[in-house]
Amino acid sequence: MPRKERPLDAGDSTLVEFAEGLRELRARAGLPPYRTLSARAHYSAAALSEAASGRKLPSLGLTLAYVGACGGDVEEWERRWHDIAAEQAGRQPPQDGGDPPYRGLAAFQREDAHHFYGRDRLVGQLCDRLSRHRFVAVFGASGSGKSSLLRAGLLARLDSAVLLTPGPFPVEEYRRVLADGGDRERVVVVDQFEEVFTLCRDQAQRDRFIELLVGACRAEHGGHRVVIGVRADFFAHCTAYPELVEELRDGQLTVGPMTAVELQRAITQPAVNAGCTVEGALQAAIVAEAAGRPGVLPLLSHALLETWHRRRGNALTLAAFQAAGGLTGALAQTAESVHDALPPHQRDLLKNLFLRLTASDEEAGDTKRRVAWDELDDHADLTAVLRRLTENRLLTVDREGVEIAHEALIQRWPRLRQWLAEDREGRRLHRHLTEATDAWEALGGDAGALYRGTRLALTLDWAAGNPAALTRREQRFLHASRSAELRGHRRLRRLVALLGVLFLLAVAATAFAVRTGATAAAQRNAALAQIAAGEAVARYPDDPDLAVQLALAAHRQAPTDHTRDSLLSTLPLAVVGHSNEVLSTVFAPDGRTMATAGFDRAVRLWDVTDPRRPTELATLTGHDEGIYGTAISQDGRTLATASTDRTARLWDITDPRRAVQIAVLQHAEAVYSVSFSAEGGTLAVSGFDHTVRLWGVEDPRSPVELAVLAHAEAVNVVEFSPDGRTLASGGMDRAVRLWDVRDPRRPVELTTLTEHTDGMHALAFSPDGRTLASGGDDHTARLWDVTDPRRPTRLAVLTGHVDGIYALAFSPDGRTLASGSDDRAVRLWNVADPRGPVGVATLSGHTDAVSELVFSPDGRVVATASWDNTVRLLTTDFSRAIAHACERVREPLTRAEWERHFPGLDHRPPCAG
User: Fold this and answer.
1) What is the CATH number of the domain that holds 776?
2) Which residues form the signal peptide (predicted)?
3) How many CB atoms are located within 10 Å of the residue 832 CB?
4) What total of structural domains would you count in the chain?
5) Which site in 9, 472, 535, 828 is 20 to 30 Å from 662, CA atoms measured?
C-alpha cells in the first residue's frame, strides 16, 4: 500500500544523506507510489519504503533495485553503498579464504557432522525411536532442517545405512541403492519423501515404492529399517495409503523450530570450531528474530555464510550480517546479485533454468525439481550461469544432475516468485513437453509418442513466444511432431480427392452450411456482446449512461457470466469520494452510518440510511498522515482509526454530525489496522513495529495498554473473532497467528498458520466464528476451519485474482465471501460449503486497487474502497438492480452508438422509454 514518507530523523548523517539521495531519485522519477516501484523492483513496497527511511543501511540488492526502478545510475549507487557498508562495518572487503563452517542453503551432509549443532536432543529422539520401531517418519515444515537431521545427524551415527531421494522413478532408485547390499539388514533413509507426490507422475510406480518400503520394514527375514523425511504439508497425502497410516501410528517424529538455546549453539559452535567468534550483538539479534520461527534455518544458514565471507578478521559481526542483507534479505540479495551481474542473454538462460528447476502443483504449490544433465543443453553460456549459481550455493550439482539448493529460494526470491506467477499454464505445457520428449527418446523415436492435433497446436503456439525456453531435444521432438502432422494432412487430402460421391457430398454440404451459418451468426452476436460488456466497464467512469446501456444490451443479447458481471459492475447504488486514495471503510452496527478514510488524512462519516443517496455528515481531521484502518465498536459509539503518523485515535461518534476525538494511542511506528472485541472493551492495534498491542477501552477516553504481541515483521491486519475469545493477526512475515485473548492482559499464542507464500493483508472471520479467511500478496485467499483455534485445518484455497488480495469480508449470513485485490476486481464466492467454495461473480468498476470492502449489517449492500479515490456502494440483490438499471439513464442509446457496438443487429436500445 502507498505510504507518505516520514521526515528523516536526525541520527547517522551518512545514512540520512544516503536516504535523502534515494528520495530525491524517486522525486525526479515523478514520485511513483511504492506499490508501482514494487512491481518494477521485485521487492515489497514496505521494504522499498524502509530503504529510504534513513534508519539503517538497506541491503545492496534492495538499494540497486530501488535505484533501477527510479531510473538512477546503478553503478554509481553500488559504489556509494560499498563505501558506506565498509565504513559501518569497519572492515576490509569480503574475505573468501578458509573452509566455511556454514552450509548456506545446502543441507548438512554426513561429512559435515562436525559443524552440525543445535539438534542433539532431536537426533537422540530419532535414534531412540528407530531402535524401537522399524519404520519412522520425520515430519517438518519446509526449512525446518529435516534433511540435515537425517544426513548429518542420523546417518553420521550409522554404519549400515543407505540414503535415497525418490525423484520421478522411486522404484528404480530404491533398487539401485540396495543393489549390492545382500540380505543384511540396513537402515533405508528416504529424504524428501514428498517427491513421490510431486515428481513421480506414475501412480503404479508410486504405489509400488510405498509397498516396497512398508514390506521392507515388515519382513521377518532380509528386511530393513526405514526412515522417511516428509514435508509436513504432505501428511494428508500419506494418509491416503492405509499401509502407511498403520506404520505412522507409532512411528512419527516432528521437527519443530529451534529453541533459543539450540539456535545459539547452531550459530556459535561452527564458528568456534573454525577458530572464529560471533559478536554478542549478532547472536542476540539472530536469536530474537529466529527463535521459534518455522522454516527459518536455510535463511539463517545462508545469512551466516554470507556473514562469514564478510567477517572482520576472525569475528562475525552484526554489521557484516546487516551488510549481507540480514536474516530475510540475504538470500534474495545473493540471488539478485548473481542475476544482475550476468549479461542480458545469460539472464534469460538463468530465468529459464529456474523455471525448469521448479515443479508447480495446485495442491502442493511450487517445489524444487531435480533436472538430469540430459535434459539441459551443453553450451558455454549455460555452463557459465550454472557455475555462478553453484559458486554462490544457490544450486547443487552432482553426476546425475542439478537442483535448487533449498525451496526457501523459491519462496524468498521475489523475482523468481514473479517469474513463476507469469505463465503457469505455459509452464504446465512445457513440463508436459519435457516428459513427452523423454518418453519419445526412450521409445527410440516412435512416431506413436509424438504430439498431434490440439496438443501440438497449443504447444507450438506457446513455443513460438518462448523459443529460448526450449532445449534442442524438445525442439527436435516438436519438429518431428509437426512433420508427422503435415504428412497426415497430405494423406487425408489424397483420400478425400479419391471420393467420387460428389452429389451426396454436395447435399450434405448444403445442410451443413445452413446449420453452420446459424451457429456462426449466434457466435458472432455472442462475441459482440462480450466486447460490448468489456467496453461498458471501461467507459463507466467517464460515461455511466452509455456504460449501463451497453452492459444491459450485452446481457440481453448473451446472458453469460461475463455480461452479467459487466452489468453489475456498472450499477453501483452510489459512489462517494475522497481527494486521495481511500484505504478503509466500515459500517456502524446499525447500518445507518458509514466511515471512510484514506491517504488524504481525513475520516468522512456518511448517512447511508438510503444507500442510493449517501449524505456526508462530518469530516474528522487530526491525523498527520494517511489512515489505513478503521473500526467501530459494537455499541456504535466509538470509532477507532489507524495511521502511518504512528498513532491510533479514538472518536466519539454517538452523534456522527458532532463527532469528536477523545484519545490518542501513541505507537513507535506506523499503525495499519484496528479491531474492537465483541463486547467493545478491548481494542487491538497493529503496525510496522512488528507488534499487536491490546488496549483496554472500556472507558475510551482513558485507554490502558494491556499487552504486546510479537510478529517477526510488520503486522498489516488484525481481527477479533465474533465471540471476542480469539484474535487473528497477519503481516509481512507471511504468518497468520491465532491468540487466546479471553484474558487480554495475558494473551496466549495458540498456533501459527504458515501456508501463505508472501505478505498478509486481509483477515475475516465468518459470523459463526468457525471459518477464518486469509489473503495476501501471493494472490490467494485461504479458508481455515478454526472451530478449535488450537488445531485449525485448511479447508480451501481460492484462486482467480492476478495480484495481491487486500480485503476480505463475509456476508452477515456467512454464505458469501467477498475479496478485493490490487488487480482492481471484487470477487464474490459462495462459501456455504467452505470446503468447496464456488466463484459466483467478478465485479469491475474501480480503476485502481481495491483496498477494503465490507458488507452492511443487513447484507443488502457491499461497500468497496479503492486507491482510485472512491468508495462504491453495490447492492447484493442483483435481480432488483438489473430490473431498475434504466432508472438513472438520461439519454437512450442513439442509432449511431448502437451500430458502432452492435453492427448488423436491429436497433433495440435497452432504455428507450
Assistant:
1) 2.130.10.10
2) none
3) 12
4) 4
5) 9
Angle between helices 326-341 and 60-69 (to 10 degrees): 60
Domain range enclosing 68: 1-89
**pLDDT at residue number 90:** 46
Contact 650, 631 (CB under 8 A): no
Residue 295 lies inside a defined structural domain of this protein:
no
* Residues 546 and 661 grouped into a single domain: no
Domain end position, chosen among 89, 106, 140: 89
**DSSP label at residue 885:** T
Largest CA distance in the chain: 97
CATH number at residue 246: 3.40.50.300
Cβ atoms of 368 and 354 within 8 Å: the answer is: no
Helix (H), strand (E) at residue 709: strand 704-710
- Torsion, Cα 386 392 394 395, to 10 degrees, reads 40
Q: CB 375: neighbour CB atoms within 10 A?
A: 16
- Output the CA angle 296-298-301, nearest 5 degrees: 105
How far is residue 796's CA from residue 785's CA, in Å, rounded to a whole number?
10
Q: Are residues 52 and 159 located together in one domain of the fold?
A: no
Distance CA 904, CA 889 (A): 24
* Distance between CA atoms of residues 237 and 538, nearest Å: 45
Give the type of residue at 510.
Answer: T
Asked if residue 626 and residue 555 are part of one domain, the reply reads: no
- Host H or E run for residue 40: helix 34-41
Which parts of the chain register pLDDT below 70? 1-12, 42-44, 46, 86-98, 181-182, 328, 361-364, 398-399, 454, 486, 488-525, 527, 912-913
pLDDT (0 to 100) of residue 42: 67
Residue 135: inside a domain, yes or no? yes
Cα dihedral 377, 378, 381, 387 sign: positive
pLDDT at 493: 47
At residue 2, the pLDDT reads 39
Last residue of some domain: 224, 255, 286? 255
Question: Which residue type is seen at 809?
Answer: A
Q: What is the DSSP letter of 233?
A: G
In one-letter notation, the amino acid at residue 596 is: T
Residue 733 within a domain: yes
Q: How far is CA 677 from the centre of its chain?
A: 29
pLDDT of residue 369: 85
- Statement to judge: residues 671 and 588 lie in one domain: yes
If asked whether residues 690 and 822 sit together in one domain, one would say: yes
The answer for residues whose C-beta is within 8 angstroms of residue 881's C-beta and 6 or more apart is 568, 571, 875
d(CA 798, CA 782): 6
Q: CA-CA distances (angstroms) from residue 894 to 177, 456, 533, 899, 900?
A: 78, 47, 17, 9, 10
Contacts of 426 by beta carbon, 8 Å cutoff, 6+ apart: 462, 466
- The DSSP code sequence of 728-770 is EEEETTS-EEEEE-SSTTS-EEEEEE---SS-EEEEEE-TTSS
**Residue 893 DSSP one-character state:** P
Considering the domain boundaries, does residue 690 fall inside one? Answer: yes
Helix, strand, coil percentages for the chain (3-state, nearest 5)? 40, 25, 35
If asked whether residues 207 and 70 sit together in one domain, one would say: no
Question: Looking at 398-456, which runs of residues are DSSP E strands?
Answer: 401-404
Q: Cα(844)–Cα(823) distance, rounded to whole angstroms?
A: 10
In the β-sheet with 574-577, what is the strand arrangement from edge to edge?
574-577, 870-875, 861-866, 850-855
Q: Would you state the pLDDT for residue 8?
A: 61
Confirm if 586 and 630 have CB atoms less than 8 A apart.
Answer: yes
On the CB side of 346, CA atoms within 13 Å amount to 17
Q: Three-class SS of residue 661? A: strand
CA distance readout (Å), 442 to 166, 439, 445, 469, 712: 20, 5, 7, 22, 50
Cα gap 170→179, rounded to integer Å:
14
**CA 278 to CA 300: how far, in whole Å?**
14
Count the neighbouring beta carbons within 10 Å of the beta carbon of residue 448. Answer: 8
* 125 and 74 co-located in one domain: no
